[in-house]
Amino acid sequence: MNATPRWLTPKEQAAWDGFIRMQEKLIGRLSHYVQADSSMSAADFLVLVKLTGAGGRMRFMDLTKLVEWEKSRMSHQVGRMAKRGLVTKEDCPDDGRGFFVVATPAGYEAIEGAAPLHVEHVRRLFIDALTQDELDTLTRISSRVVVHLEAQPD
After folding, report:
1. What is the count of structural domains for the chain?
2. DSSP per position, 105-120
3. Where is 3: in which H helix or E strand?
4. Class of residue 24 by CB neighbours under 10 A (exposed 0-12, middle 13-18, buried 19+)
5. What is the Cα–Cα distance from 10 to 71, expressed in whole angstroms?
6. How confident is the model at residue 1 (pLDDT cuts 50, 70, 90)?
7. Is residue 10 a part of any domain in this protein?
8. Which segment of the chain is annotated as a signal peptide (predicted)?
9. What are 126-148's pLDDT values in tens digits?
C-alpha cells in the first residue's frame, strides 16, 4: 500500500456515495419485501436461489464460495434453514468433513412462491427506473468491476 492515501476527488466521492446509498436502499427494501411476502429472510432467499439454480444440491464449500460468505456464516445459515425444513445436509462420500446442502420440497415450494414476487419488486424498484442504454452501461460497469476485483489479491 502507498504511504500517502489516494483520497477520492469530489466526483469520485459522489459516485461512491451514490453507489453505496443506492445499494443499501435497494437491498434494504428488497430484503423487507422478501420477509413480508414469504416469511423468509434475505439470506434464506439468496441461498435457495443459488441452490435451486444449481440443481438443488451443492457441496457446502461451493455454495459458500458462490454467495461469497464466510464458512461460519454459511454454516449457521444452513443450520437455521435445516431446522425449518428448507434444506437438508447429506454426507459427502469422498470427503469425510464435507457435506452437500440439498433443497427440500419445502425449500423449492418457498422459493417458487417468493421468486415471482421478488422479481416484480426488482423490476418496479430497479429495472423500471433505467433505460435500456443505462441497463447496458450498468451491466458493462458491473462486469468490469467484478473482473477487476477477481484480479486483486485477497
Report:
1. 1
2. HHHHHHHHHHHHHHHH
3. none
4. exposed
5. 38
6. low
7. no
8. none
9. 999 999 999 999 999 999 999 99
